[in-house]
Write a structure and sequence with these properties.
heterodimer, A: alpha+beta, 2 domains, 6-stranded antiparallel sheet, B: 402 residues, alpha/beta, 10 strands
């Protein structure tokens, strides 16, 4: 009995020793920082992401970098600040650069920390100009010689230029590349967009909206994409909540709202956890399903029996994906 | 113009009692559009008749409650507003990089452009950042922007064209700007012209400068129950000269979802603005159906004793927790609590009614930065220069959001 006890203690000692040695070995290995993992040159602070004082050839930074917090953003971009704040804006850091040959030629580099990749994507898509070509900077970009916009990770970047000399026309894009290289992370679009099936989807129509999906305050935020179905255009929304309980409450609120509006609700089975179809004023026919921490809502349907296949596909993808889907930093 | 049935002086006096001290601080706040969620609109609000008023001497009869389109993303909200009789819509060249104008244009084309009034705004400077040094935009650039606006709005003209966000009096009198506006009028691209301004420190001087030009038809200015009397006086003077007055930022925040008396705080704040005899209409920013229904419900409402109490209570309820986020409190906590961020999370919760964003913001703080240590802290070195009881607010935030 006594010998067995000592034998057990000896075994335990050996195990602890082995664990200690293993953890010591691991700790001694050179660690790869998140910035290094993201790519050469990636940095963590907004100010470091800005091009240096003389980093853009033949251009100099004019004055100090400036910063705006949410409550002061209004002083910078006036009423447009509301939209940024609704999308989760945390902080802006920017700087102005002037040409060494002509001080009137200037570019302004503004980096917005939007708090989440979805927030940055949402602001980008709200401003995206389909007529402007993509520039291959960050996750997505567009612009011209006077205006470059892109996002990467949770950062949305705007570069505005006042340039008349052709020799200076490359400066905005050079600045954009410098910033993009310093933002940590890859150039992928937000993962949640993969929940939209490819079949029938209108390319480039994906968006992230905040402030009331379909105009409803109880559907605060979500992603949306257009689909071509049987020659008609419909919209698929995935409304995002902090958890299943909040999603369930919003689902019930939606039914109550439609009931108060005098709309007939048809319960449907086999779509997510709960689902219904109904007509809604201004949205034609809608098909709504509750799935985990989301509500899937397809609108613009020609009849209340349509839209089932798309809802099924989206619900299936959400079931297979790992929650939470709420935008996270 | 509407007869002002309440005693405004009395109201201002009432307000000033509670405003004293903290009033100046609150006048500097801008949380336009921040508002709590109100899921149930008053039963009678959707059927309330819209009231129409003369916009200065323009001859336009605009809905007393009009629409600041700025943050809108869903056209359903515009259709609802049209159904409720709202006929004046305010957007800007810069909002959502032009998508805001596109959204409005699409809806109004479907509804009937001529049945509505549209205003857009173009900034007179390249950027608002360096207000002291940034050169004015060249007129040809402004003309280019105007063409873009009209194309996006799918119309040949706007009813009112504003110079956007005039923060310096000299911008309102800048000769090339006036020539640009005159040209837009002559070409039929703008029926009337005006200036928009809201910066508290220069509002009165900008209004005076604009008035001196004898040129503008409409002023779009910030006005709410927290505005100092001189702002109201400057606008009243302009209205007496025949300039149309449109009030913006009428809600002055939005930190209460409880209904007191017959009006919600937002309705009371809107009713306060509309009861000023010099205000022709107000353009609250609206992003969802509930807001449209609620704001339309303020039409024709008089501010009686109970509504004045609503505003009074509203003011009192926000003044000791309305964070200016000046950052002065940073570093006053020995435990390194991120006080401004915690306050921002509370703003999302209380001001925007966005509980999920509030929770998310709070949870993203590390354990050393959140307000956990405040729950048992008795050091109380934290200090707010504007009088907010930080310790109490931090404890509240942790209980609410942790």
């Amino acid at each position: 009995m006594h010998i067995a006890c000592w034998h057990n203690r000896y075994l335990l000692f050996r195990m602890l020793l082995a664990l200690g040695l293993l953890s010591g070995f691991m700790a001694s290995q050179p660690r790869q920082s998140s910035a290094e993992a993201a790519g050469k040159g990636a940095v963590d602070s907004l100010e470091e992401m800005l091009p240096g004082i003389n980093e853009i050839r033949d251009w100099q930074r004019s004055g100090d970098a400036y910063a705006y917090a949410p409550e002061k953003l209004y002083n910078y971009i006036d009423g447009a600040a509301d939209q940024f704040i609704a999308y989760g804006f945390v902080r802006l850091q920017g700087a102005e650069y002037v040409s060494s040959t002509d001080q009137k030629e200037s570019i302004t580099v503004d980096i917005y920390d939007m708090g989440s990749a979805l927030g940055a994507f949402g602001i980008f898509t709200s401003k995206k100009d389909p007529a402007s070509p993509a520039l291959g900077i960050g996750a997505e970009s567009f612009g011209n010689d006077q205006f470059v916009v892109f996002y990467k990770g949770r950062f949305y970047v705007e570069i505005q230029a006042r340039i008349t000399a052709a020799v200076n026309s490359a400066a905005p894009k050079i600045a954009a590349h410098i910033v993009a290289d310093r933002i940590p992370g890859g150039n992928a679009r937000p993962e949640i967009l993969k929940l939209f099936p490819a079949a029938g989807r209108v390319p480039g129509s994906e968006n992230y909206l905040a402030g009331g999906i379909l105009g409803h305050v109880f559907l605060p935020r979500g992603v949306v994409s257009d689909y071509q179905v049987n020659g008609g255009l419909i919209k698929a929304h995935i409304v995002l909540f902090l958890g299943p309980a909040q999603a369930g409450a919003a689902f019930d609120e939606y039914k109550k709202y439609l009931g108060r509006s005098g709309e007939k609700i048809t319960l449907r089975e086999g779509f997510g956890e709960k689902s219904f179809a109904a007509h809604e004023q201004y949205q034609k026919n809608i098909f709504v399903a509750l799935v985990k921490d989301t509500i899937v809502c397809v609108t613009g349907l020609s009849g209340i029996q349509t839209g089932g296949q798309l809802v099924t596909e989206i619900c299936g993808r959400i079931q297979k994906s790992s929650a939470p889907h709420f935008p996270a930093t | 113009m509407k007869q002002n049935k309440i005693d405004r002086r009395q109201f201002l006096r009432d307000m000033s009692v509670s405003v004293a001290g903290a009033g100046l601080m609150l006048n500097g706040l801008d949380v336009s559009g921040a508002r709590a969620a109100v899921s149930a609109a008053p039963q009678n609000s959707s059927t309330a008749a819209m009231e129409y008023r003369d916009l200065g001497k323009t001859g336009m009869k605009v809905s007393a409650v009009s629409f600041g389109v700025m943050t809108l993303t869903d056209p359903a909200v515009l259709f609802k507003a049209l159904d409720l009789g709202i006929n004046y819509f305010d957007t800007a060249w810069m909002y959502q990089n032009g998508k805001n104008e596109e959204l409005l244009g699409k809806v109004l084309k479907e509804y009937g452009r001529k049945k509505t009034f549209v205003a857009t705004k173009i900034a007179p400077v390249f950027s608002f950042r360096a207000k002291d040094s940034m050169p004015m935009e060249k007129p040809e650039k402004l003309e280019e922007k105007m063409s873009q606006s009209l194309k996006r709005l799918q119309t040949d003209y706007v009813d009112v064209l504003f110079l956007h966000n005039i923060v310096k009096p000299e911008w309102a009198t800048h000769e090339p700007m006036l020539k640009f506006l005159e040209k837009m009028k002559q070409q039929g691209k703008a029926r009337f012209v005006g200036i928009s301004f809201h910066e508290g420190s220069t509002l009165t001087r900008v209004a005076q400068a604009g008035l001196q030009t004898n040129f503008y038809d409409v002023f779009l200015a910030a006005l709410n129950f927290k505005s100092p009397p001189e702002h109201a006086e400057a606008l009243r003077k302009a209205r007496h000269r025949g300039i149309g007055i449109i009030a913006m930022k009428t809600q002055a925040g939005g930190y209460q979802d409880a209904r007191r008396g017959s009006l919600s705080p937002f309705q009371a704040a809107l009713a306060w603005a509309l009861q000023n005899d010099f205000v022709d209409c107000a353009i609250p920013g609206m992003a969802n159906l509930d807001q449209v229904i609620e704001n339309a419900g303020a039409v024709g409402k008089k501010l009686g004793w109970s509504e004045r109490k609503t505003l009074h209570a509203y003011y009192r309820s926000i003044r000791d927790r309305y964070c200016l986020r000046c950052g002065e409190c940073s570093g006053t906590c020995p435990y390194e609590t991120a006080i401004p961020t915690v306050n921002r999370a509370l703003m999302y919760y209380e001001g925007y009614g966005d509980r999920e964003l509030a929770h998310s913001t709070y949870r993203n703080l590390g354990s050393a930065e959140n307000a956990r240590s405040c729950v048992t802290c008795h050091d109380l070195t934290c200090n707010c220069v504007n009088g907010i009881n930080i310790a109490e607010r931090m404890r509240y935030a942790h209980c609410l959001l942790a």
